[in-house]
Amino acid sequence: KNSYELVVVGGGAGGCAAAAKFSSKLGAGKVAIIEPADMHYYQPMFTLIGGGMKTLKNSCKPMSKVLPKKADWIKQRCISFDPDNNKVVTEDGKEISYKYLVLALGMQLNYDAIPGLIEGLTTPGSGVCSNYSPAYVDRTFESLKAFKSGNAVFTFPNTPVKCAGAPQKVMYISEEYLRKEGKRDKANIIYNTSLPVLFGIQKYADALWKVVKSRNIEVNTRRNLVEVLPREKRAVFQNLDNLAEKVTTDFELLHVTPPMSAPKELKACQQLTDANGFVSVNKDSMQHTTYSNVFGIGDCTNSPNAKTAAAVAGQIGVLRKNLSAVMAGKPLTAVYDGYTSCPLVTGYSKCILAEFDYSGQPLETFPINQAVERRTMFHLKKDFMPDMYWLGLLNGYWEGPGLMRSAMHLGMK
Ligand code: FAD
Ligand code: UQ1
């Protein structure tokens, strides 16, 4: 079959949820989902795997088990798009046509953009690790266990990223690990970030500054990793405020958050994307800015929210309503407020649950101050979120905590 009512490209958080919603609405055989991967990873668990709290196996399920039964799975990479003719092309050269299209390709990890990084990540015992990819996430805890003494350096790249809190969550977990193992006094913990701030939202940044100060963590802003010398165990950083200045740092452990971008297949289709290669959507409706039968969801869109699975949950209800409206020839009414959330795990038992919207103002679900490190929020993240993702979001049942928030704040104001 090569023609569908709806084609969804990408079977991650957003694509799987969108396909679940619309295949149940439109019936069997009407929706195709194009996704090349065998495994679906619950990426938010990678942070916990890095700390030895979960295993890689805990974080994944076969794609065949999570994609909706009523949708046809086309196990291919989509290599080009032809929105003027309502077609996409897969790697095997097949053209698939659609009436409606949902783009959910996520983000691309560009480990190869930093010389020496892949060598470091594939050399046993180099101390170079990265929670961002299932190929490397196991190295984090291995490197922590092998840590003897020296610098433990954590990086944040000079690109857009998914889950902007994750580059520092791994650091707080590592700091606590080294303390528990009696090695903390032999370690300098260093956070080198390309950003000018520790976190983009003031309320949570203030709380995180208290954490780094109380735990003796060195934070350097505007420092971008540009090269890894794995055999010498040195990393080269560029000062983004003075590009001529490079600083070389020795490391015993180097946790790298890789540069990221829009997927190359999307970048190649300029009708669909902005100058950076992200899908151009209306930030309120998630509809494409020129093709009314095309929508985007998740990390591959240019809506200016922080990119997380929680944001996907915030968008999916809007996509459901607005794409259904387009299908019915009705006006679009649902509006995405930019909701996103970042559970800032600060160790083995505590978490700051950041939640905010397009305005950059906190939009907290619970009627308590979520900038405070809490054990309850840690359990929410570690023990409750995985099922919310697998059973709720991926099956199209979880549309974010908006209703919960309204209920919990009833009578509070
Ligand atoms: P993804 O889930 O990444 O899915 C994209 C899919 O598209 C993939 O399956 C891929 O194979 C497929 N694809 C790519 N290119 C093509 C192509 N050309 N053709 C067909 N298919 C293609 N979020 C939170 O809410 N809370 C957290 O605590 C959190 N922590 C995180 C920690 C880490 C270390 C990482 C890496 C991420 C974390 N996230 C967190 C972010 C969250 O995982 C993503 O925001 C979310 O998965 C985005 O969903 P998506 O559908 O846009 O992309
Ligand atoms: C969320 O909805 C979500 O997606 C399923 C996450 O990704 C795993 C999250 O990390 C968070 C925090 C939310 C928001 C949910 C609540 C209950 C605040």
Could you tell me the number of beta strands? 21
Number of structurally distinct domains: 2
**How much strand content do the residues show?**
15-25%
Any idea what the CATH architecture of the largest domain is? 3-Layer(bba) Sandwich
Rough outline: globular
CATH topology of the largest domain: FAD/NAD(P)-binding domain
Q: Based on helices, strands and strand pairing, what is the structural class?
A: alpha/beta
CATH superfamily of the largest domain: FAD/NAD(P)-binding domain
Over all CA atoms, what is the radius of gyration?
A: 21 Å
User: Major sheet, described briefly?
Assistant: 7 strands, mixed
CATH class identity of the largest domain? Alpha Beta
Poorly predicted runs of 5 or more residues:
none
Q: If helices are DSSP runs of H or I spanning 4 or more residues, what is the number of helices?
A: 11
> What percent of residues adopt helix (DSSP H or I)?
25-40%
Instruction: Name the average pLDDT.
Output: 97
- Which ligands, by name, code or SMILES, are bound? flavin-adenine dinucleotide, ubiquinone-1
Span from first to last CA?
55 Å
